[in-house]
Amino acid sequence: MNDSIKIGLIGFGTVGTGVVKLLFEENKPLLRDREIDIDLIKIADLDIISDRGIKIPDGILTTNVDDILDDPQIGIVIELIGGYEPARSLTLRAFEKGKCVVTANKALIAKYGRELFEAANNAGISYLFEASVGGGIPIIRGLNNGLNANTIKSIYGILNGTTNYILSGMTRDGVDYDEVLAMAQKLGYAEADPTSDVSGQDALNKIVILVRLAFGADLNVETVFCEGIENLTVQDIDCAGQLGYTVKLLAIAKRHEGNRIEVRVHPTLVPSESIMAYVEDEFNAVEVDGSAVGRELFYGKGAGMMPTASAVVSDCIDIASRLNAGTRVNFNRHMIEGNGLELIAIEDITMRYYLRFTAKDQPGVLFQISKIFADENISIESVIQLGASDSDYVPLVIMTHDALEGDMRRAMRQFEKLEVVHGRIQLIRVEDI
Amino acid sequence: MNDSIKIGLIGFGTVGTGVVKLLFEENKPLLRDREIDIDLIKIADLDIISDRGIKIPDGILTTNVDDILDDPQIGIVIELIGGYEPARSLTLRAFEKGKCVVTANKALIAKYGRELFEAANNAGISYLFEASVGGGIPIIRGLNNGLNANTIKSIYGILNGTTNYILSGMTRDGVDYDEVLAMAQKLGYAEADPTSDVSGQDALNKIVILVRLAFGADLNVETVFCEGIENLTVQDIDCAGQLGYTVKLLAIAKRHEGNRIEVRVHPTLVPSESIMAYVEDEFNAVEVDGSAVGRELFYGKGAGMMPTASAVVSDCIDIASRLNAGTRVNFNRHMIEGNGLELIAIEDITMRYYLRFTAKDQPGVLFQISKIFADENISIESVIQLGASDSDYVPLVIMTHDALEGDMRRAMRQFEKLEVVHGRIQLIRVEDI
Q1: Sign of CA dihedral A48, A53, A54, A55
Q2: pTM over 0.90
Q3: CATH assignment of B139-302, among 1.10.10.10, 3.30.470.20, 3.40.50.720, 3.30.360.10
Q4: Contact A146 B135 (CB under 8 A)
């Protein structure tokens, strides 16, 4: 048996507490069975007072991260503070000290992946981040190892549990966005400030990480199209349902001819009989289409204390067995520099659209709308007036055939000028997966 | 860059051809991107004449496996001949020669896992078998690495593509077993002799492998309850559908209190809204319930040339990078000897049942049947007479509450003696997943 590998944890929040539970309580017999000897010896957090409902041995807690970074015993640092700074600096300092690092920090990897992977290689240590995407779903390993004999053609993901919980509630119970969000916050499925979730930013960070691993693309996260769920209404979810679609916040990445890729995150109409429509509440799913394996789906809890902690601990076990064998993770150039893939501008992407107008109930309205579509080369698939309205306005839903986003944006600017159209025009993209 | 790792392939059938395609044609640029240097230098098969539709460099084919086993250049042997012998002897010989082995042979691992894992450890080489379960789905890695911080509570699997294809056809098109089987054979989804698939044996081998990895149980495959799909009728699939259930060949493993496990393979009624009911045609799915992650699902093509080849090549890549780093896979005692878990006899397992009787359309029939249920302590949940019959007999469907299999077997023996019951009584187990 090898010496035990010593671990230091930075960040004792929800996931950190889950990690401590796994390492101190639940996993001792399991790890013994598997002949894995890891030992959490220090925990750093600004708050070392609050009761996390878990018994911690004396002398383990500290408010000073240097107690971990400067401890020569510690071989693995778990970084669970999130955000860019001080997470980035602490990670780089850990690398310099020759310590392996495990993180759940998707924002950091999405933005600084290249720098951090390169620094990890140079330091000769392992840097793992399974928990950064899909919580407890082993999708990072799936792409890096299980599917490494495949050229990946596309990835579709429901990557954010908060928004999926909200959309599921709106769909199932017909309850409005604000009300479900408040409920999600009460139940701990949404943060007090839910911006990074509901804006799509969290899902965006995750798809950028998956794209780096699967396609070898070094993307600037700020250049990727991202739209949140804040403007979705129960009315649109109902209309979509009547048309055979379910609304999901979908992250999409596709490889195109000529070394180009398409990446985007937005509310999406998916066919109600598709497996993505089945993914409800806090669950996540990633569907990968590989050249040899075809379509594969990984499904599970994408967030939460224990699922995320499970991924963090699996990374620790992986690194520990590498340390015992005297080896480490090495990032290849494909994962650091990328393969020079070019991101296609959102305006140049073709897709189908759902539009809902609140239109005056008078002759000629459809004529005015359809003229704009025709002028912009957008072909209408169907027009449905769903239910009558009490007022002078009726909801008019139009589904288009494939159209260029650039054309659609021009059309939208025209629609907004129409006098017969009232209020906001709802536009939701459609993906026939 | 390290020296290239040389590979020898034994067995040039369907999957072997897929492996050759991946290694010789499709994957060259991919592997270069990933800085993996593996080289297939020999292929052994009894038939080296048939055209597999793929260009093979001269001098690679041989009918003599010794050309591979005795070649000191070769570091990895891929065994794709299937069955127990000569696969087992060849594998052990490869180990003795210090060669790592990759296999897709589920029968071999299920029956001789303990011996082979121990021999691999003793020889100090890596032995991988991702392709043996779930085709291209990386479920072996998922259990061994991704979920290794979890105590696994249960596994549900649709593990055989052939039977799932047949059941999907029967369900969707209302076509009888024999007819769908013939179609499946024509399309290559079923073998000329489909016994090992339709009898459940193939799924049984796979669940026994998963149970070894997940629970640490060294089971004798012959002691596990297994029932095939040969006796299922469209009538039962229809009845189940009307009751809100879909019929699947399900492999089930559950951990019980007191170091006991339940493992079984049989046609199963699963709720039609469950994700398992969604898994159609040649797709497979494995749902794992882990102590920390909760329910996770792995879904994809469970068989076929390229998905299975993808898994074989991913194992080769894994071993190659270990060889380059001077390390190897090591099986822990938990995976070799097991944890002393005891297999619960099928008679002692509790579950719900669907029964269909063809009963005389006369008073007192239900009385006779329900008396037997009562005598055996089996509680009836519902009785449905589905549709009228032209003859003197009507189909009578009974769903039970939880009952012991032993009690149900005794009841079945009584039912068979009833004069008012005609022909075969259909019994299908129910799992409310």
Answers
A1: positive
A2: yes
A3: 3.30.360.10
A4: no
